[in-house]
Design goal:
Helix content is 24%, strand content 32%. The chain is of the alpha+beta class. The chain has a six-stranded mixed β-sheet with strand order 6-7-8-3-9-10, with helices on both faces. Strand 7, helix 5 and strand 8 form a beta-alpha-beta unit.
């Protein structure tokens, strides 16, 4: 396996659209790195540049220490798994797995060894004589993975490989890919628009938006310390709640947020966020994860609280999502199963100040502690 390094890689299409605006990062040898972002943000274009299917406008791409910008895709020693399975319908599983190796002139005995090893690893040993039309979507995706696996490449590139599967199959295939990576210790770059896939699979995640890298970090650090409003709102399901207003630091009277014509008490926010006082009497955005917003009746103590109209109750078994409205601001709370107020009633919600995330409303950047 090998490391992959990108230095200021940029892609501008002929129509002037900037698809990737100066991407720089390194995927370590044996790491599973996920590129995540909304559709059209440039993540697939970046993956195709690594594969050699798109030409970088500028910047360098290195695999295993070699700059590969001028190399053809077959010379880069990579294997790619696409969103559609791209299997040959008239070939058996064994023939689909072996076809690429045959084109490269690999000896027959070596082809047989690699095909059997991949089939055993992916649970396809009993299906080698089946054709794609006889298989489920998950089985066909395993064949597509196996076709990449038999190549024994330096780098695996996976472009939204689970998008065509239903929810149950996506879950099982995520587990299979994680197990495969652990077993192979392979260098993998995985593209997805699904933040749950990104959070569960990636050792590190590159968050993209509009062709630009927003943040690179481990899944939990991205969740707990998002660098800006986009990352905070994109990662997490349901998404982070945002409270927008003017901060009021009132000394002994405490801190509050003036929003929607009301003053929302924030308790001892200054102790939880040293340095935030520089936003006194300025606009600010405060973020709060749904699991940190709880029904006040379920919590004792003098926590900051707000009142909101309960609009929708969504039970999902082990937890309940409450969709609420505070003036024009929409909120979501994630609470454990319990006796709940009825939809349409006014409820009191509480939160701990240390769980608030603070962002600059103009730049969108996280406000770091002083």
């Amino acid at each position: 396996m090998a490391a992959v390094r990108l230095d200021n890689v940029r892609k501008v299409f002929d129509n002037g659209k900037v698809a990737v605006a100066g991407a720089s990062f390194e995927v370590a040898d044996g790491e599973l790195m996920v590129l995540v972002g909304p559709s059209g943000c440039g993540k697939t274009t970046l993956l195709r540049m690594i594969a050699g299917l798109e030409t970088a406008t500028s910047g360098t791409i290195a695999i295993d220490g070699r700059v590969v910008n001028e190399m053809a895709p077959r010379e880069r020693d990579i294997a790619m798994v696409f969103q559609n399975y791209a299997l040959y319908p008239h070939m058996t599983v064994a023939e689909n797995l072996a076809f690429g190796l045959m084109l490269r002139g690999v000896p027959r005995a070596e082809i047989e060894r690699r095909v059997n090893a991949a089939a055993d690893m992916l649970g396809l040993a009993t299906m080698l004589q089946s054709r794609p039309r006889q298989m489920s979507g998950g089985q066909r995706q395993r064949v597509a993975l196996g076709r990449a696996l038999v190549r024994e490449p330096k780098v695996f590139l996976l472009d939204e490989p689970l998008s065509n599967l239903d929810a149950k199959l996506r879950l099982s295939m995520r587990v299979e890919i994680a197990r495969l990576h652990k077993r192979l210790r392979a260098t993998m770059i995985y593209v997805t628009h699904d933040q749950i896939e990104a959070m569960t699979l990636g050792q590190r995640i590159v968050v993209f938006n509009q062709g630009e890298i927003q943040q690179i970090d481990t899944p939990m650090r991205l969740y707990e310390q998002p660098a800006n409003l986009f990352v905070a709102g994109f990662l997490g399901s349901p998404a982070m709640n945002f409270l927008r207003g003017r901060l009021q630091c009132e000394g002994d009277a405490g801190t509050s947020l003036r929003m929607d014509g009301e003053s929302l008490p924030l308790g001892d926010l200054l102790a939880a966020h040293p340095g935030i006082e520089r936003y006194d009497d300025r606009e600010i955005v405060l973020g709060l994860r749904p699991e940190q917003l709880q029904l006040a009746s379920a919590h004792a103590g003098a926590l900051p609280s707000l009142h909101a109209q309960l609009e929708v109750i969504e039970p999902v078994g082990n937890e309940v999502f409450l969709y609420l409205r505070h003036g024009p601001t929409e909120l979501v709370a994630r609470v454990p199963p319990q006796h709940l107020p009825v939809a349409g009633s006014e409820v009191a919600l509480c939160f701990a100040p240390e769980h608030l995330h603070a962002f600059d409303p103009e730049s969108g950047r996280r406000i770091e502690q002083a």
